[in-house]
Amino acid sequence: QLYREARECLTLLSQRLGSQKFFFGDSPASLDALVFSRLAPLLKAKLPNGKLQQHLKSLQNLCNYCTSILSLYFPWDGGESHPPPHPTGLGRPVPPEEDPHKRRNQLLSVLVGLVAMLGYAFLSGIVSIQRSGGVGPAGRQPITLEEEEEEE
């Protein structure tokens, strides 16, 4: 039933779009962004069950709609041979496997995460440090588990 309703929804979207470039004329609206965000992955992704994808591909105006938006707003992904310039302005981005600082960055990420978790554990009281001198804060003796049970 879910596939049937999804196919019906795609058919209705196709009918509503008709031969227009966007749903509300010649310029995109928020509905276009929402519809594209659902259709593009369905159209481009490799799916284990391709029933819905096949139905979408049979609706030529929706396929053209997605292709048009991809080439208009994502030209480096829609068939142009060059990716967008790297934000650093140094040419092409370095692929992750060629990144000379990959190991260092991974190690720093792990260390920052570990420090954050330990800090949270200490500040929330999950973990506490007791001195072996036996005297806790303000001169009080720490209560052991047996003494705590006896007090109850």
Automatic annotation (TrEMBL):
The keyword Transmembrane helix applies. The lineage of its organism: Eukaryota, Metazoa, Chordata, Craniata, Vertebrata. This is MTX1 protein. PANTHER family: METAXIN RELATED (PTHR12289), METAXIN-1 (PTHR12289:SF34). The gene is Mtx1. It comes from the Eukaryota. InterPro entries: Glutathione-S-Trfase_C_sf, Metaxin_GST, Mito_Protein_Transport_Metaxin. Residues 6-69 form the Metaxin glutathione S-transferase domain. One of its GO terms (cellular component) is SAM complex. Keywords: Membrane, Transmembrane, Transmembrane helix. The keyword DNA-binding does not apply. SUPFAM superfamilies: GST C-terminal domain-like. It holds the Pfam family GST_C_6. The chain crosses the membrane at residues 107-129. Residues 133-152 are annotated as: Disordered. One of its GO terms (biological process) is mitochondrion organization.
